[in-house]
Amino acid sequence: LAILLCQVNCETDFVARNTKFQHLVQQVAIGTMQHYRGTVEQPSTYAKIGKLGENMVMKRAAWVSVPENCFIGSYVHGAPPSGNPLLSNMMFGKYGAVVICSPPNPCDNSDFAELGWRLGQHVVGMAPLSVGSPEDEPGDDSETKMLAQPFLLDPAISLGQYIQPTGVSVLDFVRFECGEYMETVEAE
């Protein structure tokens, strides 16, 4: 199981809602996925950028792949694609997150779509910096630890308390926010 999260920036919301831009993002995502799989180099998009008439840049991407005994939750905060059925397998928005989880039983990862979506929603809304552990107490220095944060949809409990009855373990997460500062890392 794998998922790709990629960030393609443009200058205006008008262009971001344009079907041509969304199709370009789809091509970038497919090319990036193929690049991660080692089947093709990153595609050139300069001709498309000229046709849309706006400065755009692929800012970053994360390819998340997990073994069969894990699952990936995802959430994107924003508008769905512009009604184009060719884009139905994609989500567009200003914020996105994927959360890597391990179910309590290795064969039981098909019933966690809703939980994965809620965990992704929490990561987008609460912007944790690390997973933390179930033993972390809420407050003070643990406010950036995901499992110790107040659960976005029920602040009376921590996220750790919310998932505890499910037996699911959160292993890691990735969060993208358009416009956030990011250090450039040189590939080796």
TrEMBL record:
Location within or outside the cell: Mitochondrion
Pfam families, A to Z: EF_TS
Domain named Translation elongation factor EFTs/EF1B dimerisation is located at 5-131
Entries under Gene3D superfamilies matching the protein: Elongation factor Ts, dimerisation domain
Q: Which domain of life is it from?
A: Eukaryota
Tell me, in one coarse class, where this protein mainly resides. Answer: mitochondrion
Q: Determine if Protein biosynthesis is one of this entry's keywords.
A: yes
Give the keywords, sorted. Elongation factor, Mitochondrion, Protein biosynthesis
As for what it does, the entry says: Associates with the EF-Tu.GDP complex and induces the exchange of GDP to GTP. It remains bound to the aminoacyl-tRNA.EF-Tu.GTP complex up to the GTP hydrolysis stage on the ribosome.
Question: Which family does the similarity line name?
Answer: Belongs to the EF-Ts family.
User: HAMAP family under this entry?
Assistant: EF_Ts
State what protein this is by name. Answer: Elongation factor Ts, mitochondrial
Which organism does this sequence originate in?
Gekko japonicus (Schlegel's Japanese gecko)
**Recorded name of the encoding gene:** LOC107115613
